[in-house]
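Module 6 notes. Inverse folding takes a fixed backbone as the condition and produces residue identities as the prediction. Think of it as a translation problem where the source language is geometry and the target language is the twenty amino acids. Below is one complete input and output pair. Work through it position by position during the lab.
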């Protein structure tokens, strides 16, 4: 059995099946709280605990999935290019909105970390929590942070945005689909974008555009705030 666990195919297969099953459950129930990613994480943890499988053994295959993070980051450029006409038409509002969203995210995390006395490693690990995982992990690695902390923060932020975005848009009476899409993408990256696509085509497109632009802005801002630590 040990040979099975340590095989790269075990981690890849378990991750793929768990995510597929999680998405199926979410589609079947129609409940927002039954998020496919959350269910997949829970199922993987349950399998590792029940069968007493070491995380390192699972990660032998699970880490192979991380190889796709680099290409996924590059693919963000495709999203920006596909919306080039909309970007040109609303260039100033889009740039201002993404800059404000990134500054609010990074600035609030930096202030809270200082308030609660977190050390530098944890602070730089949490700063990019509102951008997509490939960019967030690259920022954390470059600044000597803790990548697993960053990944957990990014996932939690994405799930929270996925669950709360529609209610917040209604609460603050955001009528402009461009503004709504930018807000969702700026604070909850790809998982928020999945929900934005359900709100409308424009919301989804602008949310996807915000992922790339906010990723760039967050990379610069994280360096600035790191210098203040």
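Target side of the pair, the amino acids:
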């Amino acid at each position: 059995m040990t040979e099975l666990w340590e095989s790269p195919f075990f981690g890849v297969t378990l991750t793929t099946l768990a995510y597929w099953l999680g998405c199926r459950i979410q589609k079947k129930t129609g409940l927002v709280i039954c998020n496919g990613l959350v269910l997949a994480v829970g199922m993987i943890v349950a399998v590792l605990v029940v069968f007493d499988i070491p995380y390192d053994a699972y990660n032998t295959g699970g880490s192979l999935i991380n190889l796709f993070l680099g290409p996924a980051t590059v693919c963000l450029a495709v999203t920006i290019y596909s919306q080039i006409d909309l970007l040109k038409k609303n260039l100033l509002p889009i740039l201002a909105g993404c800059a404000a969203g990134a500054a609010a995210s990074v600035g609030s995390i930096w202030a809270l970390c200082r308030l609660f006395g977190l050390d530098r490693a944890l602070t730089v690990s949490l700063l990019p929590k509102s951008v997509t995982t490939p960019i967030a992990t690259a920022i954390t690695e470059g600044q000597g942070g803790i990548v697993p902390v960053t990944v957990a923060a990014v996932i939690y932020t994405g799930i929270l945005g996925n669950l709360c975005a529609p209610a917040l848009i209604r609460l603050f009476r955001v009528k402009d689909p461009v503004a709504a899409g930018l807000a969702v993408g700026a604070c909850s990256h790809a998982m928020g974008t999945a929900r934005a696509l359900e709100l409308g085509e424009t919301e989804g497109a602008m949310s996807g555009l915000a992922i790339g632009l906010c990723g760039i802005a967050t990379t610069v801002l994280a360096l600035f705030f790191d210098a203040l630590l």
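Reference fact for the lab report: The radius of gyration is 18 Å.
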